[in-house]
Amino acid sequence: MKIQLIDELVDMHQKSPITHVYTSPTLRAFKIAEAFSSTVGLQVQTQKVLREYHFGIFDGLSEAEARQIDEPLWESWMHDPNNVTLPEGDNYMEYHKRQAGFLKELHRNHAGQKARILIVSHAGAIHSLLTNLLDIELDKKWHFDVALGSIAEVDTIDGYGILRRLYLPDYTEE
Question: Which end of the chain is more exposed for a tag (fewer CB within 10 A), N or C?
Answer without folding.
Answer: C
